[in-house]
Structure formats: structure tokens, C-alpha cells
Amino acid sequence: MESQNSVVSSKFGRAAKLVGTGAKIGGNYLKYYAKKAVTGSEDKDSLHNDNAHDIYESLSNLKGSALKVAQMLSMDKNILPRAYSEKFTMSQYSAPPMSSALVMKTFKSATGKYPNEIFDEFDGKSIAAASIGQVHKASKGDKQYAVKIQYPGVADSIKSDLKLVKPVANAMFGLSEKEMKKYFEEVEEKLLEETDYELELKRGTEIADSCGSLENIYFPKYYPEFSNKKVITMDYIQGLHLKEYLATNPSQDEKNQLAQALWDFYEFQLHELKSIHADPHPGNFLFDGNGRVGVIDFGCIKEVPSDFYLHYFPLLIPEIQNEYEVIDELLRNIEIVFDADTNEVKQELTEAFLKMTKLLSRPFQTDKFHFTQEFLDEIYQIGEEIYKIPEVKKPTQPRGSKHALYVNRTYFGIYSMMADLDATIVNGEMAWRNNLKEKWLNSQIEA
Amino acid sequence: MRTEIINSYMLWVNEHESEPKSVFKFCQNNSFSEAEFYDEFSDLQSVKEEILSDLWKQSINSLSAQEFYHEANSNEKLLSVMYGFFENLKTHRSYLVQAYKGWSNPTEPIHSLTSWRKEFIAYVEGIDLSGMKIGVEMIDKNTQKLNSNVLFANAMFVFHFWLNDKSKGFEKTDACIEKLFVLSFDLMQNDTLKKAIDLGKFLFQSK
What we know:
Distance between the termini of chain A: 71 Å
Number of helices of chain B: 11
Order of helices and strands of chain B: HHHHHHHHHHH
CATH superfamily of the largest domain in chain A: Transferase(Phosphotransferase) domain 1
Structural class of chain A: alpha+beta
Distance between the termini of chain B: 42 Å
Number of domains of chain A: 3
Shape of chain A: globular
Oligomer: heterodimer
């Protein structure tokens, strides 16, 4: 019965932790309003900083998938003020490592042999931590491998972790549980997929095969014979993370070449494969110093449903942005506006959304586009502006397709990498635009 | 003969869903004589005890063939043996679940664990756990005794956990070993509350 007691007390302990966080956030707002009343100035950044700190503190005690949610939110800088996202980015590095004994055991359960029976060398210490596993380096002959090993029991803890993050997330975004439900379901589904390394191996191999002809981008080869649901073995890829790479002062030409490679890669995935690498955080890209970039970790792939594709991407095309009726149909389909909305609400949301879309689609509108930090700032700014609209701040019903969640996250990730590279990309002919134009503008004429 | 007696004992427990009542009855139904039985075991209870301790010893033996095991520090060694042990237990799960059905309190030592306990403590004391040194001082005998008993209490707890574990491949047992032992190593080195929270969280999720 001893264990029962400890279970109950730990449950209360966790709940209390989150309640505590809620109270602290409340306290921070109080401080903010007090300060505003006294000084008359809006020290909003310090408010966000205080909140981000408290949320981060509470999330870092949760570990595991809560960490993953934090990462997820941290990528979506559009809905998160910058202070939040910076704190959350830190949370990517705080999972406790597995003992090497457990690593050996997990590997053996997966493959039937201990790592040292397969490889000439296997390092029991991990070279990198992922939020649901860790990566070890191995070698055989002159070949080097990266072996990713999953923490035991991760899949089981995800649902339970998400339940605990919910109240924090609701408090952060001012959304009710009902509104968050469809988004949480999407996140949960993706997180659970990420625990299936067999799926990751299959997808990684597929994407690498179909993107083989793209220039300056490369992928590790996967080894199914040394992989299973909990272990995934691939080529060890040399390279620096973006920050370290930039510290080597690469030339502008090289940065442009890299940005172009990434740009073409995502364009190809989205419009040809209709399926994208949706985890564009800096740890998943390795820069080799010769103008090439390696892409790893295919655990989070967003398959873009064709109906969503047909209604979301036309919004990026200028000619369509001016067709009010088409826009109306598109926005209704992707759940930004609803038939039940009043005309004022509809109009306000349509205008706000178009404004955002025009900004976000700017990189596609010219032959060349240079990504800068100012461009990102403009996006954040407009994001905060839109957030002030009452129907966005306190929606009467959830708005926005759940599919947009990972697609947007991916684009914010790419844009912010591009801005870090401070690079110029060149747009190709973008055949997808013609297809979508044909569909939407012609059907309009027929009608 | 020893193996044969042990296998027959486990088979009996599985088939009858209870333990044999007497050595006489047990031998009657099997191909060995009472004399042969008593050459190996003192009574039925000791068969039950030694099934566990044999499995424990086997896990140590099979690991000592592995290079990485010899290179590991003592904490990692103990962990490896724990993982190997529970991997071995898998093969005899039906018997073990049946044999330990009445054991409800994981913190209460039961008689049939005595032999395993002896082997466990002998092993732990033989590998000179780094967690048993406090600062630079070598710890005194009493502290060492306490520590090996704490570690055995952990092992016992995990065994009980495993008997009730319903997760695929018993991966929760793996997580339990990892969290519990790493925590104990840390606590023995006068560390840290953070991992206690981790464990509490895990236990909460496993219900």
C-alpha cells in the first residue's frame, strides 16, 4: 500500500506544481499592471520574461513529452512572444541521460546483440540528447554510425504529460480546453508517431530517396538491420550546428547556397511530396563547411492532406489574394471564418489574415528574396497585432485548421534559419502556383 | 539433476497453480528420487529460493563475457546485471507470477527472497560501488551494510513492480530500474531531489 500513497502524493505534487505556476503567472501580471499604474510605461518584455521563466521552471520539472510540447511551442514564434520562445529553446537541452547499462540493454532487446558484438566500437556515453532518446556514436571498419536509442516507456508517458501541460498552455494562450482540443490531438498524434522509430526509418529512407537529386543537401543512410521500434541506426554525419557554423564566418555565397538548398528542399517536399520534415529546429541540420547541409531526424513528418493543400497554399499567390470570393471560400475551408460569424467579425478576420498572409508570402513574390531579422520582427509584430483582435484573443470558437499547426511551425522554423543565415534565395518557376491558379481562377470564371 | 529438479518444480507450480505440498509428493510425480532431491536441496522452500538466486548468478555470468561490462564503473555494472536479470526472468514469468502471487507489499521482505538477497549483497559488496564512498573517506562497515540493504530493497521493489508490469516488453520495468537505482546512487552520494521527482512522476504514470 506504500506505493499507492506515494502515487497519490506525487499526483497532487504535480498538480500543485502547475497550480503554483498558474498563481505565479497571475502574480506577474499583477506586477505588470502595478508597474504600468505607477510608471505609466508598459514593460511588457519584463512581464513576458517573468512568465516565461516560471513556465519554463515548471515544464523543466516535467521532462519527457512536456519538453517536446515546449519545443513545439517554442518553434511557433508567431503565437509566442519572443521571451517565451527563448526560454523554451533552452528546454531542448535538459533531459536526463540514460545510463550506459540501459543503453546496452535497450540495444540488445532491439537487435538481439549487444552493441559491441555488432560494432567495433560503441560509445556508452551519448553525443547528443533528443527529448525522447539519445544518440550514440559507433564505428565498424572505417564506417561511422549514429545510433539513436529511445528512453523506455516514453510513448506511455506522452498522453499523461500532455494532460499536465494543457492547463499551462490554456493559461498562456487564453484558450479554453475545448478550443485547444483539436490542436492537442494533432500534437499528440505527432508525438506518438515520433516514438515509432520504424516509421521514422521508413520515412527517412523515402524522403532521402525522393530528394536524392536535389543539390547541396544530403541525408544519412539508415540501417534497418540495426534498427527497430526503439533503436535507429544511421550514418554518422559530420557537420556543425547552425550557430557554430555561423561562428566560422562563412562567405555570403556559401550562405546563399545553403539557404537555397534548404529552400528547394522544402519547396520540393511541400509541393511534390505533399509531406514535410516538420521539425526544423537547429539540431536537425548539420552544415559541412563546404556549402552542403545534412538533414537528420525524420521523426516528425507532416503529411499535408490534399484538401488542406488546395485551400491553404492558394493564399500565397498574389492574384488569388485579390479575389475576394475565392478568399472567402478558402478561409471558410481552413476554418478561419465560419458561416455563423457576423459580417463585422468575418471582415475583420479576413483582413487580418490576408495582411498576415501577404507578409508571410513575401519571399515567394519576387525572383530573389533576402531573409533578414527585420523581416522576422515584422512577422512577430503583425502576430501581436492580430492577437489584439478580440475574436482572436478570446475566440468564440476554435479557429484555424489543425493541419496549419505543423505547416506553420515548419515555415517559421525555415524562415528563422534563413534569417540567421542572412541569405538570399532565388525562386524557380514555382509550377505549383500555376496549378493552383488554374484551379481557383478558372473555376471562378466558369462559375 | 539440479536443473531437472528446478524445471520440474516450475512446471508443477504452473500446472497445479500452487506449490507442491511435500517433497514426497513432488518426487513421486517426477523421475528423481527423494535421495536425489536432498542431494541438491534441503527442502521445497530452498528450491523456490534458489530459482531466483540461480537466475541472478546466471545474469552475472553471461555479462562477464562482455567487454563493456568489465570496462563499466561499479554503478553501471550493477545496473547491467539488473537489466540482464529481468531479461532472464522473462523466460520464467508464468512461474514467477504464480509463485509470488500472494506477495502484496513490495517493501516487506519475504522468506523466499533470502537466497537472492544473500547473492545480491555479496555481489554489491564485491564491486565496490562508487556510490558508497562519501567524500574522500571510505565508509565504515555499517554504512556499507545499510547501502547494500537499500539497494536490495530497490531490487525487491523492482521485482514486485515487474510481477505486476503490464507494459510491452516490460519497458516500464526498465524505466523503473533506471530511475530507482540512479536515484539511490545519487542519494548515496548525498545528491539530489530532482530525480526523486522524476521517479514520483513515473510511478504516477504507471498506474
